[in-house]
Design a protein that fits this description.
- Chains A, B: InterPro entries: PurM-like_C_dom (IPR010918), PurM-like_C_sf (IPR036676), PurM-like_N (IPR016188), PurM-like_N_sf (IPR036921), ThiL-like (IPR006283).
- Chains A, B: Belongs to the thiamine-monophosphate kinase family.
- The structure is a homodimer.
- By secondary structure, the first copy, chain A, is of the alpha+beta class.
- Chain A folds into two domains: 137 residues, 2-Layer Sandwich (60s Ribosomal Protein L30, Chain: A), CATH 3.30.1330; 168 residues, Alpha-Beta Complex (Phosphoribosyl-aminoimidazole Synthetase, Chain A, domain 2).
- The longest helix of chain A is centred in the first third of the chain and has 18 residues.
- The N terminus of chain A is likely disordered.
- Chains A and B meet through helix 1, strand 1, strand 2, helix 2 and strand 3 of A and helix 1, strand 1, strand 2, helix 2 and strand 3 of B.
- Strand 2 of chain A pairs antiparallel with strand 1 of chain B.
Chain lengths: 333, 333
């Protein structure tokens, strides 16, 4: 077996600065970290990025670090929580250079600093692997809602509106270009987005906490995640494809597709959008939309919550058949 | 890229039972978990096992799951803390069978249940990889000390005794047999131990919290970790090799070695022993030893804390030269 302990040298050079000298990190010199005392409690998410699964071997490592943080921050934002502590487990390929490792740490650190309100890296483990890079981050957050609870998937009620922050589809289009399944013309923004899809700014978490009755981030695909929300809330969700908020690039791409509905479904099932999908009381819709606009976030009413179960999709108010694949799911063996 | 989302089916079948229906896990059906409110605060450790680095590809997967939990539990026990929540990030090789995955989950779950006081698995992520298995666990604990603080590496003072729980060296001997660098004769117990080295029972955490002024688990190697403790506490540690507590198998192995000191040093630098190494006020030594005995744990006085810096090693009270390698460390590039 290889020597697993790259750690001593690295902790000092790369990770310790990311601890922001937070007292509870003990300078990353001990075996555990201590969370600050919180009367509001803590929520926790743990997600990973795997070379060849979530990113391409040729991807710049700075973007891989960025992607890892955003993947987790997206979960906290959509639950109305602020990150307060991060823990990294890194399986670092023996064949990759120290320079790439510095790039990874830089992307991770900058994203914790600029997009997670200087959330400290408080611990973890760095070891070597003979295989592809695997990095997992545990992000611990504090819920912002007055209840002290995260906004769950299960709070949607009949009569709520389904509202989405930002756009969907760019991550899908960008990935298709990067996999050479689509020409890159006119999709430079989508390609950049797909390298490290970005959730809305952290301040949006407070709006989720204030206004959303149910919420989750769109990671598996809009249709799949809408169905998750409906299932958890024991209601039916119906989405209108023509309301799908997409970027200017995606609008132009859509306009050039021979089968518009199929193209819209591709965007609504591609996944990795990292935008909060929320169930909102209609009385709050305008307040949320206005407050989000102050943060530069577009809110779109994309559907309704009704009595029943499952998911419906309409195009121009005509119900259409659901695609076989609602998102980035595995098929059963 | 591969489909990263094995999750839906697996969560239900394998992981949900391990959540023990803990309210804050939301049945592993949401995107975050919520920790219970704790007036004592929380400590956190995150550690991983990597195929080819921390375990052999042929290792039974049940033992890999067990090893992962113990690696993390060892950190909490040595800090005087009890585990309360676990989060798993699993990069699962596409070529391994569902049967092996069930074995992994079984080892993980049984160890959380029987050795971590039914600590619930409250979240995480399972994705596929084209490379070797990588599993990381974040274990969140509650400190047991009256101060609400973990027992750090930095609390040792001149005059304290260095005391070790259990034995060292079996993990090293067992690994050497498994790598076919040693004959297996008489080392069956060491081989079994090395598959998933075990810390003392969880109840030992309360003794650490009550008696230890400084503590860490011996994972890098006894000499390396003694030096870590001395450095953090700004004192000198001196260990007596002839006081090294070893198992009966290791005693017989030692007796057969031509160079006893070299053989003792091999046991004291092999690592992965997962036994707490503690700085103890001499006035507390007997109380700790008696209380530990009630738990079936042997406590051995292996050295002293003195004024100065660094590490000294004696054999029969004669100071000997330190080996070049104190533990399982990487050399600088």
């Amino acid at each position: 077996m290889a020597d697993p302990s790259l750690e001593f040298e690295l902790i000092a050079r790369l990770w310790r600065p990311l601890s922001n000298e937070h007292a509870g990190s003990f300078g990353l010199r001990d075996d555990v970290a201590q969370l600050p005392v919180s009367s509001k409690g803590f929520v926790v998410t743990a997600d990973q990025v795997i070379e060849g699964t979530h990113f391409l071997p040729s991807d710049p490592l700075e973007w891989v670090g960025r992607r890892l943080v955003r993947r987790n921050a997206s979960d906290l934002i959509a639950k109305g929580a602020h990150p307060v502590a991060a823990f990294l487990a890194l399986a670092w390929p023996t064949g990759r250079s120290r320079h790439e490792l510095t790039d990874f740490a830089s992307g991770l650190g900058q994203t914790l600093a600029s997009e997670c309100a200087n959330c400290p890296l408080m611990g973890g483990d760095t070891s070597t692997t003979h295989g592809p890079l695997v990095a997992s981050l545990t992000l611990i957050g504090q819920p912002l809602a007055a209840t002290g609870l995260p906004i769950l998937r299960s709070g949607a009620r009949v009569g709520d509106r389904l509202m989405l922050a930002g756009y969907v589809g760019d991550a899908h289009l960008g990935l298709q270009v990067r996999l050479e399944r689509l020409a890159s013309d006119g999709l430079a923004g989508a390609v950049a987005f797909a390298q490290a899809p970005a959730p809305p700014p952290l301040a949006f978490a407070a709006l989720v906490a204030q206004y959303a009755k149910a919420s989750l981030d769109v990671s598996d695909g809009l249709l799949a995640d809408a169905r998750h929300l409906a299932q958890a809330s024991q209601v039916r969700a119906t989405l209108e494809l023509n309301s799908l908020p997409v970027s200017q690039e995606a609008q132009l791409w859509l306009a050039a597709q021979p089968d518009r509905i199929s193209a819209q479904l591709a965007l609504a099932t591609g996944g990795e959008d990292y935008q909060p999908l929320m169930a909102i009381d209609p009385a709050d819709a305008q307040s949320l939309t206005s407050a989000a606009k102050q943060l530069g976030v577009t809110i779109t009413d994309i559907g309704s919550i009704e009595a029943g179960t499952g998911l419906g999709v309409t195009a121009g108010n005509q119900e259409i058949d659901l695609p076989n694949r609602l998102g980035w799911q595995i098929r059963a063996d």
